[in-house]
Amino acid sequence: MSPTIEVTGLGKSYGSEPVLASLDLVVDGGVLALLGPNGAGKTTLVSILTTLVKPDSGSARVLGHDVVRDAAAVRRLVRVTGQASSLDELLTGRENLVLLGRLLGLGRRAKPRADELLERLDLTAAGGRSVRGYSGGMRRRIDLAASLIAPAGVLFLDEPTTGLDPTSRARVWEDVRELAAAGTTVLLTTQTLDEAEALADRITVLDHGRIVADGTADELTALVGGQTVVLLDAAGTVIGQSETDGTPASVARALTALDPGNVEGARIELRSPTLDDAFAAITTRPREEVAA
Predict the structure, then answer these.
(1) Which DSSP letter does residue 101 get?
(2) Measured in whole angstroms, how far is the alpha carbon of residue 220 from the centre of its chain?
(3) How far is 261 from 92, CA to CA, in rounded Å?
């Protein structure tokens, strides 16, 4: 059985600037979070996989269909939430969802499904208003509702929770988990590391158009290595720290080196690397080093 998403030697440039450089990627179910700094190539990759942009070289297949030769088949099988609204500005939020649901084959189920999503994303009161009058956060939520209106083989979410309040974001997370549990493959791009850690079975880090790290959140943090022994004063301010390689002997040496002296209420903490630490370490190399 072929992978859900299969990318081989994918390349894309805009002018003389390479955005994707001979990229290889295989996704076979679950939730994949695509991380990377601005300009890393995340949105370009999603645009190619959803047939919005053609690659310059290499190939990409989604659910067995080539994104260039079988673009129409790919479009029928995927759903996308991008960074820009694609709904009819003159229709109400509810009308947009019902129309889209019917176009995607929901029939009489389109109306109750639209109402369910409006309630879930806290848009019930706004559902009867024209999308043209929605705030930025409301537009993000109605776009997300549109991508969730009908089942899909693959759901692409390009920074789906940007501009959402914590409650709405939690609801989106719940929806993503339910979709993945039901068998939908989800590929999301995000710059919110806690979102990637909370949702993704696997995290792929893109930098300068290349994959520079790939694995679970625990596997990526392990790349940083070691632990840090931190000395804090009574107010919680760091007044000293010492890096270790994680071994008991190394930690013991660090504890000995961090003498609190006469600092009243001082305490010591042992801190493990976070996903933020791993992301910073992985994506701070210059383009020449990444390409090597």
Answers:
(1) H
(2) 15
(3) 66
